Amino acid sequence: MPKYFASFDYSATGTQGLLKDGGSQREKAVTAAVTALGGKVDAFYFAFGQADAILILDLPDNVTAAAVSLVVSASGAGAIKTTPLITPKEIDAAVKMKVKYRAPGA
Fold first, then answer.
1. Is the dihedral of CA 47, 52, 58, 62 positive or negative?
2. Residue 40 contacts by C-beta under 8 Å, 6 or more apart in sequence?
3. Domain range enclosing 27
4. How many distinct structural domains can be found in the chain?
5. Global pTM value
6. Within 13 Å, how many C-alpha atoms sit on residue 2's CB side?
7. Taking CA 42 as the corner, what is the angle to CA 40 and CA 44, rounded to the nearest 5 degrees?
8. Is 15 helix (H, G, I), strand (E, B) or coil?
9. Can you tell me the distance from the alpha carbon of 27 to that of 102, in angstroms, rounded to the nearest whole number?
10. Strands 78-85, 3-10: parallel, antiparallel or unpaired by DSSP?
11. How far apart are CA 102 and CA 44, in angstroms?
């Protein structure tokens, strides 16, 4: 199953909800949503700095990842950034592919 790195930055409204419900309840809510879509939360951490929360998710496909991202963004609780993660074996396969490419101005 593809893995995704997601970072989340809380809005003022989202932070108020986090203060009200706590971190464990937020983790449970996210895990329930991801599990209902056939995925799994590999890691869930709160942070401070560039992101307020960091997650590693196993999701069935890019469409599911996009659906999660859209619903979270539409909530107004904050902004999510989702990055597909690529395994070393996938990179091995990619470097073996022959790509015809011409750089700009070449």
1. negative
2. 1, 34, 57, 58
3. 3-96
4. 1
5. 0.88
6. 17
7. 110
8. helix
9. 46
10. antiparallel
11. 41
**Does 89 reside within a domain?**
yes
The single residue listed with the structure tokens 């069935």 is 60
Tokens of 29: 């809510």
13, 25, 47, 95, 104 from 44: Cα distances, Å: 20, 12, 10, 31, 41
Please report, for the domain that includes residue 75, its CATH number: 3.30.70
Could you give the count of Cα atoms lying within 13 Å of 72 in the half-sphere of its Cβ?
A: 23
pLDDT tens sequence for the chain (106 residues): 999 999 999 999 999 999 999 999 999 999 999 999 999 999 999 999 899 999 999 999 999 999 999 999 999 999 999 999 999 999 999 999 999 999 999 8
Contacts with 95 (C-beta within 8 Å, 6 or more apart), sequence order: none
CA-CA distance, 78 to 55, in Å (whole number)? 15
Count of C-beta atoms within a 10 Å radius of residue 34? 21
What is the number of other CB atoms lying within 10 angstroms of the CB of residue 2?
17
Name which of 28, 26, 27 is nearest 18 in CA terms: 26
